[in-house]
Specification:
Number of strands: 14
Largest sheet: 7 strands, antiparallel
Strand content: 25-35%
């Protein structure tokens, strides 16, 4: 599932969680809006705000977009905003009879400088839309379900246009790592397949490796070439059982590094600069001399290896 779909799921979750409460509140607002009783409207909003800590701000607009209530927080009623016309706001036409609730994209609040979203609900009386109820919600205070961010889609990201335009004016220069590439790859395979490393990234021109281990996943270690070609480095990573939930098999690890070697030497102008493998989520990361990057699954990488990478 891609990022856009995950965001839609989160918004749908919020609609399910907030919809019933907002519908009841909007019905109560409809009575006061019909009577143009701003004082009672403000008190109603204040009571709701004080019992819902995730809300930053609430106000009510009439059907023409004129703000009928004050700006109401959980501690203050600011009536200086009452009467302003907000009909030009992007959300103004987002709700109707068939879509009574709308959740905006996230944005940074100009008042709190924190991430928030706006939730709108129609205000009706006798089945007729009279206006809308608007809430600004603090994203940091919302209880949202955990989403799986593992990407299985092949993502290609173009890099610096200047680098791309000069691709054929540059040429691969043999790095110190290139001269010992088989040794580097053998040790990398051992670290991933036997010694508890789950994510490893090789920087071929800079001759270094960045390593993440299962024992210390929140920190990474950087090894220069003299370290990564020395078998003694294996003493720093104790033997581990291969994770049962890894998405990359031990046999596939060796195949991946064979492909990395090919991509590194495949052309003097277009060649691999950095490569990474994460055995837990099965992801491959590639960056080429054209500054183009690819993020793809192990299956896509192996099945489509002859595909165009830049």
């Amino acid at each position: 599932m891609n990022i856009s779909d995950l965001i839609v799921e989160q918004k749908n979750f919020l609609k399910d969680q907030l919809g019933e409460g907002l519908m009841q509140l909007s019905k109560a607002c409809g009575n006061y809006l019909a009577e143009q009783d701003a004082e009672q409207l403000n008190e109603l909003l204040l009571s709701y705000m004080q019992s819902h800590g995730y809300a930053n701000l609430a106000y009510v607009l009439d059907k023409n977009g004129v703000q009928m209530s004050a700006n109401v927080t959980n501690s203050e009623i600011s009536d200086g905003f009452q009467g302003q016309n907000l009909s030009d706001r992007p959300f103004f036409n987002a709700i109707d009879d068939e879509h009574p609730i709308y959740i905006s994209d996230a944005y940074i609040s100009s008042a709190t400088l924190k991430p928030c979203i706006s939730v709108l609900h129609t205000v009706c009386r006798n089945d007729k839309i009279m206006g809308m109820l608007v809430f600004d919600l603090d994203l940091e205070k919302l209880s949202l379900p955990q989403q799986d961010f593992n990407h299985e889609d092949w993502r290609q990201i173009k890099g610096d246009p200047e680098i791309r335009s000069n691709l054929f004016n540059q040429q691969r220069i043999e790095s110190a790592m290139d001269k010992s590439l088989d040794t580097v790859h053998d040790i990398a395979i051992e670290l991933l397949a036997e010694l508890g490393v789950f994510h490893l990234k090789l920087h071929y021109p800079a001759s270094r490796a960045t390593v993440w281990s299962l024992d210390d996943p929140y920190n990474y270690r950087v090894h220069v070439l003299d370290e990564i070609i020395n078998p003694n480095i294996l003493l720093l990573y104790p033997k581990k059982d291969y994770p049962e939930n890894a998405k990359v098999s031990q046999d596939q690890i060796k195949t991946v590094f064979e492909k990395f070697k090919y991509l590194r030497f495949m052309d003097e102008n277009l060649y691999l600069k950095t490569a990474s493998l994460n055995i837990m989520n099965g992801s491959i990361g590639l960056n080429f001399s054209c500054d183009g990057s690819h993020y793809l699954s192990i299956d896509d990488f192996l099945d489509n290896f002859e595909g165009k990478f830049c």
